[in-house]
Fold this sequence. Notes:
Strand order of the largest sheet: 2-3-1-4-5-6
Radius of gyration: 20 Å
Largest sheet: 6 strands, mixed
Shape: globular
CATH topology of the largest domain: Rossmann fold
Order of helices and strands: EHEEHEHEHEHHEEHHEH
Number of domains: 2
Oligomer: single chain
Amino acid sequence: MTKKGTRPAKNSGDGGGIPSESLPPGPPVPAGPTVPDGHRSGFVAIVGRPNTGKSTLLNRILDQKLSIITHKPGTTRRRLLGVYNRPDAQMVFVDTPGIERPSSKLGHFLLEEAKAAVSGVDVILFMTDGRDEGADLQALELLDNAETPLIFVLNKVDLIKDKKTLLPLFESYSRAGRFKDYFPISALKGENVDRMLSALLKLVPEGPRYFTPGTVTDTPERILAGEFVREQVYRQLHREVPYAVAVQVTEMERDPKSDLLRIEAVIYVERKSQRGIVIGKGGSRLKQIGQGARLDIEKRLGEQVFLGLVVRVKPNWRQRDAALRDLEFDN
């Protein structure tokens, strides 16, 4: 993620196609056409415990699928930057892994990702579904960031039948004395999201565009393609298998003869038995995973692609530093 006051490390235009080389570091500079007087810009981190709807909110704000979403907790494993553009403002949102006490070396990486995301931002959105106030407050303590304005966002209010329970819930969380404002929303259905965005615009400072208009993310498409594959694993497999899976795109280049974009990816598991589950009988499960991921990749890139998948065993990769570095889990 680009910290406030620094130039973005990558700028991939509209976020489509194959990523360009990294730009050298430098001071913040306005991007694109001259911004109007009073233009506001800033960074907003979306944090909270696992499975509270952070990725759903980012996709809602951007009005497109960028973050992968499943019903399983712990789906998000990387900071993911999404740029919200309008004529008078640019807000850079950062989706983060769910905050919880780590139980593996991968878990430590995820916690550090969340901590890094709130460093230097202008506003922190703390999201919850309101089911466990104690765990939420513990998650806040893990962030250890007391200076940045905190906005309390109660998500999934569409599932709350008796809206009279909302006020006591807000009053309970307000006793922590940490939050500047409170918003009940439904990220899935879009309820109250525009009102929340209007409030955020007042909290970010006047400043330049950090990304050219039309930019959606600085995350390389290679990483996003791998995430779409992993999303299908999470959706189609259950129990411990999805959590033992990592995906790495090893090739993403255009075939000079057919002009078709060719993507090759490896699905890593920790045990041989898990490999068989991912592949399925006669390769049926792997084929279904590939078909689902390919459709999402094609929709994002706006073109047909070839997606090749193989499954390999990388024993106990979640607990090994070298394996985590190989899989690009490196803070």
